[in-house]
Amino acid sequence: MTRDITPAQTVGPFHGHALPFAGGGAPAPVGHPQTVTVHGVVQDGAGEPVPDALLEFWQAGPDGSAPAVPGSLRRDGLGFTGFARVTTGRDGHYLLRTLPPGGAPYLAVCLFARGLPHHLFTRLYFTLPGHDPLLAALPADRRLTLLAAPDPGHHRAYRFDIRLQGDRETVFLDFAEPPSRHGSRHEATPGDA
Amino acid sequence: MASESVREQTGRTAPGPRRGAHDRADGTPAAPADPGTPPYAGDPLRRPRRPLVPVAPGPEAVELTGPVFGPADVDPLDADLTRQHTGDPLGERIAVAGRIVDRRGRPVRGQLVELWQANAAGRYANRLDQRSTPLDPNFTGAGRCLTDDDGRYRFTTIRPGAYPWPGRHNVWRPAHLHFSLFGTAFTQRLVTQMYFPGDPLLPYDSIWRSAGDAARDRLVAAFDPGLSVSGSALGYRWDVVLDGPAATWAEEGR
Prior knowledge:
The complex is a heterodimer of chains A (193) and B (254).
Chain A: E1 36-43, E2 54-58, E3 83-87, E4 93-98, E5 106-112, E6 120-125, H1 133-136, H2 140-143, E7 149-150, E8 157-159, E9 162-163, E10 173-174
Parallel strand pairs in A: 1-8, 1-9
Antiparallel strand pairs in A: 1-4, 2-3, 2-5, 5-6, 7-8
Chain B: H1 2-10, E1 53-54, E2 93-102, E3 112-116, E4 142-146, E5 152-158, E6 163-164, E7 172-173, E8 176-181, E9 190-195, H2 206-209, E10 222-223, E11 234-237, E12 240-242, H3 246-249
Parallel strand pairs in B: 2-11, 2-12
Antiparallel strand pairs in B: 2-5, 3-4, 3-8, 6-7, 8-9, 10-11
InterPro entries (chain B): Intradiol_dOase_C, Intradiol_dOase_core, Intradiol_RC_Dioxygenase, Protocat_dOase_b
Region (Disordered) (chain B): 1-90
GO molecular function, one term (chain B): ferric iron binding
């Protein structure tokens, strides 16, 4: 017997004084030599930046296992908790300093913003592994929306843009057990701002 | 009067909410037949056009785990939003408490619950909220706590005011608390809103209605005298059920 889940509601525009925390975008231990920088913009269907997005990242550590240590909200600069939270700026840009994951080479991403009735899940891959059920099921052009590109202008840096709509709309994921139960979120009627 | 205001908001001539026959004992209108307010579909330029890609995460998927929080992350005082400044905030004190469980009914233990809200006058202490409604220097409206071993959380705060939807003509949001919750899997992540029983604005609220006719009542708290604090705060109970992929449900010992 399963219980009926509590439905999601939009994060709205007024989360900036509550959800961000100091060091949220810098889970890498201070001065760690393996630190990578990941950055990019979140864009809407008109190509305009989304200035109020909240991005969360969850990942394995370099040893391939998921960290099980607290302290994300009060970072000590020494350990690695695997969790990050950043907001986009007025130009839609975000920046994350983290450690590269071992094992499956991706970060799990959760995106919130005003105008999204339900948050969106995606993945950021540093490389495209040969055997990945998700990637294997995607057409090549869609697969590439999940790949962070090395940023040649900067040291150990990657670029990862998230496009909510358009020709290169990012692949967003549904982890729910079928049959899906999130009601109208895929069938929402257009026209309501 | 009600149907007049609906017509102004939506340009439609649908009737206002029917009252009486469908109202629940606590006064909350239960599933009004046609409140004339279409459910919120989101910003048309932000909502993805392509269907979500279903993923059945294998045992190696990092999404089947999630961040761990502990006493290092949250100060016990973070759960009392009335004690974050030197003075007392204005408004009606409330205690909001409940239990977080997964779909199997198992408690979500030791996980982070975050709350944010407008003040008693309906304004957020946020630079994006530039309405002339007064700010309260003694109220920030942001709190955190961890669930206990039984999945329970509790906040002390102020009942927020209703407020007009920025940029729309006479469209008001009902009083609500924003909640952010974590389960033991990243896929259980939930951000949602809690509403108050008996609020006459609910049937008009397109965001509340966007949860769907069957599910939206789960977002309305219950007045619970047992949670009230004598001489201090009225109690409301709101329980949450987090989603999760099938693979996480088979795990034991959580």
